[in-house]
Amino acid sequence: MMTDTTLSLAGATVSLGVVYLNLRPWWKGGRAPKDLLPFGGYFLLGSVSTMCTGGVLGWLAGCSAAGVNHAGRQAVHGATGSAPSGALTHGSLGPLTPEGAVIVFLATVAAGLAWKAAGKLDRRRMVGGAVCGSTLTMTAGVAGALFWLPDAVNSLGLSLRTVLEGGGLL
User: pTM, whole model, 2 decimals?
Assistant: First the structure.
C-alpha cells in the first residue's frame, strides 16, 4: 500500500537536484555510459516500483514521495522564506501484469546483488537513482517520457513465460 502518490513542486525540486548532482560529474568526466549504471539502473527500478500496487516496492515508492515532499518544503522554505504548495499533475506508468511482476522481482534481486558489490559512492548513487525514479515518475511529464517502460517490462515477462512453458527462445 502506498503512503502518497503525489509529488509537490518543492519535492520535485529536491529530486531534480539529486539528478543534477549525479549527472554533472558524469558530464564533466569521461561520459562513459557505464558510469551512469548505478544511478540510471536504480532510477529505472524506482520507476517500475511505481507500477507496484503493493508490496515493499510499492510502499517504498510512496514513502519516497512523502520524504522528498517534506525535504523540499523544508529546503525551499529555508532558502527562500516560502515554499510552493500543492501537487504537480499526477502521472502513472500503468498496470503491471503478473508476468511483468516477475521481471520486476528479478530486477530487484539483481539490484540487491549489485548493491552488495558496490562501494560507498555507488551506493549513494543507487539510493539517489531509486528515489528520483520513484518520485519523478509520479509526474505526468516523466511518466509520459517513460511510456515505453511498462510495455517493455510486461512483454519481457510474457516472453519469459513463453520460454518456460516450452515456447522456444525465438
Answer: 0.93
